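During the second year of the project, the team shifted from modelling isolated chains to modelling whole assemblies. The rationale, set out in the original proposal, was that interfaces cannot be judged from single-chain predictions alone. As a representative example for this report, we include one of the complexes processed in the last quarter. Its constituent sequences, exactly as entered into the pipeline, are reproduced here:
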Amino acid sequence: MPAKIISKDMLSENVFSLVFDAKQIALKRKPGQFVVIRIHEQGERIPLTIADADAIKGTITLIFQVVGKSTALLAEMLPGQEILDLVGPLGKPTHIENFGTVACIGGGVGIAPVFPITQGMKAAGNHVISIIGSRTKDLLILEDEMKAVSDELIVSTDDGSYGYHGFVSQALENNYLLLGKHIDTVVTIGPVSMMRAVCDVTRKYNIPTVVSLNSIMVDATGMCGACRVSVGGKTKFVCVDGPEFDGHLVDFKELIDRQHIYLDQEKESYDHFCSCRSGR
Amino acid sequence: MDMKERMNIQRQPMPEQDAKARSRNFDEVPLGYTPQAAITEANRCIQCKTKPCIEGCPVEIDIPGFINLISNGDFTGAARKIKETNALPAICGRVCPQETQCEEKCVRGKKGDSVAIGRLERFVADFERSQGSISIPEIASSTGKKVAVVGSGPAGLTVAGDLVKLGHDVTIFEALHIPGGVLVYGIPEFRLPKAIVAAEIDYLKKLGVKVLTSHVIGRIFTVDDLFNDGFHAVFLGTGAGLPTFMNIPGENLNGVYSANEYLTRSNLMKAYLFPEYDTPIVKGKKVAVIGGGNVAMDAARTAMRLGAEKVYLIYRRSRVEMPARIEEIHHAEEEGIELHLLTTPIRYIGNEKGWVVGMECQQMELGEPDDSGRRRPVPKKGSEYTMEVDTVVVAVGTGANPLVQSTTPGLNTNKWGYIIADEETGQTSRKGVYAGGDIVTGAATVILAMGVGRKAAKAIHEYIMSL
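Output from the structure prediction step:
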């Protein structure tokens, strides 16, 4: 089913936000769920988390970083244009309840999927501590939006250009856990290395930690198994069993390896695309 | 033509692409009958009174009837005759296991070769399509009843086609972006060109069937949502699309695929045309395919076409127990695929970057028959050995995708998660909900799913007309 782009925003150098007309999905989606899109006839199917939705206007917001050909193509699209396919909502929603104090931790473009979960956690009555980070100040997204749905917000940058100088995992440990401040549960989304670092910290303090995985997918309905991941020694499908799992049980090494399966082809495809665009 | 003349005609061979050339392209392998060959083959049918072939057909096509029309040169009439009971003849003519169905019952097969019913079916369907003269049968006047069909594979398409002809308002909900189910994601282009599937679905659309792609039932709408939305009945034909792995070490290494993923990438997403198409696939040089069914053959032949130097088909029993059609095994061997029978993988070996580089296998011997009636493979002690491979495709069967069942209260399933449905009607434990095809029986054939679809359509018609 085609879907029309309603509006477009550039959030940082490489991160874009697109609002799509998708009435049914806007009505049905819950925090933590994702969609799969296919831009054009020769396109691949790529999963993107639903960053926000407006049930009244019938729209959903997708936030993505340009990492290859498909996301580069998507970033070129303009309001009024249509992508060929949009399917969702997919995956299990986040388990949201009043846990007490919840830390919502997002890194890079992973702040986008953390946002609706933070919203949900706040609405459920939690005391919400949000920690968001990026490599450098210019790449930070959704700071105001996150601030609006959090009781406390810490911003960190790897290079110290803004906020806490260091990783989000360090900000969590040094500002809260080392000081003996109590946190009941942690939700973290971002690059795999970041989620692993957060899990390494929370494991020491025995804090339950949920991670949301962005594996390679094809159909995203449980049919192909491309997205399989080892959780506690058992194989799970991110698309239907997830995307959220107990971060302390995820085999991150395997996850990173599996995300690299098509590295060469992705580069070939992107280079081909870029050379076409530059007219060479 | 008298009986003696008919009996003297030899079964007409079907020309096909040369094995060496075709093992490197994705074009269709058999090339189809010429009109003359079709008439000659049709003349082999003795138009016997007992017509046992019809009993062998799950959708009861009037086989002698359409063959007689071919003999008379009326190919379009023959196509219409088939379409009275089978909306998808170009597909069935290609992928039905005729040798164990209609052709097995053919009286000419008792002494010599049976009539090539499948090839004739394919010929007339292709002829009609090539003429652009596809006829639309009469549609009954609107009943005002709405039916939702979940899944657009062979079962769903049959149900939709039958019900729309009876005047019902039929909507198909398909999870993927192209309708056709296993016909588009599973069966490769070289065995069933996708343009043919698209043409058969266009035909259903011309009859009035609505097709909504990218709609995952269980997520965007539940079955209850569909009833609340005004549908009077729901047919579930969601297929057996859950990949099975063997739970042996190393199965999550890079380069180890489920057959579903490997075939979906190549067929549905056209990864064989990468980078013209954006979806990549690992093009291995030494590929092992695990399994002995038609899906394993499709995967092995796909691997060869993607440029493999060696393709090994690893099967734990012997050749006679292989579930694949003999024709498929024959085609695979012709194309250079090596069969490693009485062999099973016990673990996959990876390198430091997580890529599969080898597999450890064990030889088997056949013991006593198991529940399936086939002799059970038993490991031979001390027979372990390793093989160098860079890609593995696991094609050892599929399970039931739980998405619809888990979101439909009151829908009963068996211990494997398949939907429990009446064999004759497809009726499930939920009123107004019918099911058929692989989601009820487990992985079977296209034509069996269609046969069940036909019966379910009849039952659904009776049910909604009684409302």
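Chain A has a mean pLDDT of 95. Chain A touches chain B through 43 residues (CB under 8 Å).
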